[in-house]
Write a structure and sequence with these properties.
By secondary structure, the protein is mostly helical. It is built from 11 helices and no strands. The radius of gyration is 24 Å and the shape is globular. The N and C termini lie far apart (63 Å).
Amino acid sequence: MTATTPTRHRDRSARPTSKLTFGGVLHSEVIKLRTLRSTWWCLSIMVVIIVGFGALFALSAGLFQAGQASTEQQQQIVAQSVSVGVVFGQLVASILGVLVITGEFGTGMIRSTFSTVPKRLPAVIAKLVVIAVTLFVVSLVALVLTLLINSAILPSNDITVDFGDGALWRSVLGAAASIAFTGMIAFSLGAIIRNGAGAIAAAVGLVFVLPIIVQIFTAFVDAAWVYTLAEIIPPNAAARLYDYVVSGQSAMTLPSPDGALVLEPWSALLVLIAWVVVLFGLALALVKRRDV
């Protein structure tokens, strides 16, 4: 009598299969960003700066003698009070945008990321999408909170807030978008440079130092092309997104000479998109070409 050993058949079709999707990569990047302590520090500081500077501006708005101002001019002051801390918010967004990518290069975690996503580009694109959406949503919440707080302060300085003003809400949305674009540009610089300190220096220089250099240059060369050049650098183009203009008068920039380019909000948006496309395209090419 012989016993037959049952043959173990493996059904290949029954094996669990896993397919890497962009949604899965996106989800993993959300988890990474959420679990980093630096993320919460940067976002908290950004909210405090936007709300704090906005409230201080509203408290000192009596200096504008707004009682004699028209309704549009009062709304311009309201928009200024909401967006006065945006430049400092852009600075924090620049630091966070850089840290998101250079942190992985510094710790070597980027090797695990690229081993999991061998094509590399979906991982980098997912990081950019996550940081952009996070910065836009958090800054928008901070700006709306600032508007609500200032709506309680400004009436004591004879300034009435009109919540039905579409231009005011466009300014709020533009301010949030300007912070998101600044973060995306900083992220691209981080992917290009790969060194945290160097990339932060480049991003801070872009947000704070470059506008000062260009402004000094315009003092010596009073030509239309210089003002056009100043208009299209990222910080100034970002400011046009939330600029509240009354009768052709901007609250943030000086009048330009004839022939100089003055960006409208929609054209400023196109300029910022172009900056992100160029810098992020270069970053993708380098990430694909480098060993790590």
